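Moderator note: this is an archived Q&A kept for reference. The question asked for a predicted structure of one protein chain; the sequence and the answer are reproduced below.
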Amino acid sequence: MPEPQSVFSIVIPIHNEAGFLPQALPALQAELADLGVPFDINLVENGSTDGTAQTALAEAANFPEVRITQQPVADYGTAMLAGFMEGTGTWVVNFDIDYTSASFLKQVLADGTDADVILASKRAPGSDDRRGYVRRLATFAFNTVLRILVKSSVSDTHGIKAVRRDVVQDLAPKVVSRKDLFDTELVVRAGHAGYRIVEFPIVVEEQREARSKLWKRIPRTLRGIWRIRRQLKTEGVL
C-alpha cells in the first residue's frame, strides 16, 4: 500500500445539496483551518437532480483540498463505499455535509494511536445529543436491535467516524449493505474481525431539519439489519 498523502481523507456524500453547499463548504474549510495536519475532502455526488455537481465543482475551485467524485445513482451507501475506497489518508473519515467536527479529528490525533476504528458516538458517556426526543429514542432502539441481531459491541454505529485505511481496504469490499447501513455494517464487521474500536463522546446539534422522514426509514432499516444478519451467518461470522 502506498504511503498516505494526508492524515485524514474526509468523505462526504452529497445529494441534491446545491442550495446548501455554498454555505456549508466554506464553513467546513474554516472549521478545519487550524487542524495542523494535511487533509483532503472528497465530495461524493450521487444522482443529484438540482445541479449539485456543478455547484460543488464551482465551490471546490476555491479550496485545493477538495475534489469531486460522481456516482450516477442516488445511494448514500454506494457513495460512501466509493469515497472510502478512494481514500489515501492514514484515516478515512465520514462526515455529512451538515454534520462535521474538527474537534473529533483533533481527538483522533491526540487519543487515537491504539485504535483501528474511532466512532463519534452520540451515546458515549459525556456526549451531548441535542436532537429531539424521538430521534434520540430511535438511535437507542436501532443500536439495541443491532446488539441483539448482529452482536454489535458498540453504542452507536451511524454518524461521524474515522477508520484506518488498511481496515477500509480489508473490510469495505465485503460490505453488502448500501443506502443507510453501509457504515453500520462496516463497524459491525470491524468488531467481529477483532479490530480495536474506540468511542469518543460528541456534541450533536442539527444544523437543519432532517431531510428524510424517520418513520419511512424504519421498515427499510429493519430489513437491512436482517440482511446483514443473514450475510454474516452465511459467512460464519455469527
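Archived answer notes: The longest strand covers residues 39-46.
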